[in-house]
Amino acid sequence: MPAKSRPQIGLVLVIVAVALFHAFSVTFAALPTNKVSDKLSSTTAYLDPYFAQNWRLFAPNPISDDRALWFRGEYVVGGKTMTTDWIDWTSVELDLVRHKIVGGRAGVITTRMIGTLNTRFFALSLEQRQVAAGDREAGLGGYADFRKRLISAGGNPELVGLFLRYETGIVRLGTAALEAAHPGTRFTAVGYRVVRRPVVPYNQRQLTGAQREQVRPPEDIRRSGWRKPIQSPEGGRRTIADFLARHR
Known about the structure:
Blueprint: H1 5-30, H2 35-39, E1 65-77, E2 80-83, E3 87-88, H3 89-94, H4 109-122, H5 126-134, H6 136-140, H7 143-152, H8 157-181, E4 187-198, H9 209-215, E5 220-223, H10 234-247
Antiparallel strand pairs: 1-2, 1-3, 1-4, 4-5
């Protein structure tokens, strides 16, 4: 075998091995939670957030709730701290797909992220969740300091990193959305809330609309603490502003 072909064969073998590993990881990450997937969770963690899969259209755990993501911001006027009204970002996204034969993928981004964000949040220890939800100083001190605060509260540092991947993505989106909704405002803090409302129980689906609303379980709301705004590149801010203007 020519010596020059050996490096090429080695490269091909590496590419095949990486492809097989990725296919293996995606397969196990998409399976319903079980003992094997739990043990492999650290191995497949690299899939989040860009390669995450969600097959919850089917048994045994189909999606059974409506989810919504809201943003609000803080800013200072004349030395006084002011707070904006909440922006329902999910309704903006749903306008892209509602009553349309072909909707854009942007119409499902945050509704898909909400589930994983909550999963990552509740994987933290109780002490870490208390820091994330209520420690204003930690949330506004920058994300390097925020990470240190969460890790020092106890728990697995790897789980902190997974939580912050989604947390920073949500805050970046919220910052751009608030700046688009309030042009010229310089925000000092961004907050979000995740609203989850279970659907009507299956055995009561035959009721009238008013009756179904009465038996529908109440909303579950999780509010974040205040976070330091994260600026997006100029192109990203223009995209969000245009998206908000067309679909709000």
